[in-house]
Amino acid sequence: MILCDTGPLVAAFNAADRDHVRCAAFLAEHWSRLVVPSLTVTEICHLLADPQRQGRPELAAEFCAAIAADEPRVIEATPHDYRRKAELLATYASLRLQVVDACIVALAERLDQREVAALDRRDLLVVAPRHLPKGERLTLLPAD
Q1: Domain of residue 144, residue span
Q2: Mind listing the pLDDT tens digit for each residue in 94-125?
Q3: CATH no. for residue 134?
């Protein structure tokens, strides 16, 4: 299982994205292992349809069709995850941690996962997940 943040999916579905080639290749190789937090689905569809990002509504439709085909798997946050997100948002308020990043960390902790597909690495490299030994951080993919 690889938790997937917004960036790699937006890049993979939008050929105009500067990270398209590497994300499309990474996701093609790991497609069956992807788990997408439900919170990211709206963000992904918004960005895929955004003309300022060279998006089109058809890209959001393609992504929704992929979800409907059960690929990638979408996971819901639990009340426990929301409590943890609130803790993370308060703890890392000075970073302006985004709620989707807090969700990724909370789910990684609950599911005991280390690997996360993400392009926005700053926050995920700073946050200290509870389930990892002190000083360790999530493994971010695809590698630079």
Answers
A1: 1-144
A2: 999 999 999 999 999 999 999 999 998 888 99
A3: 3.40.50.1010
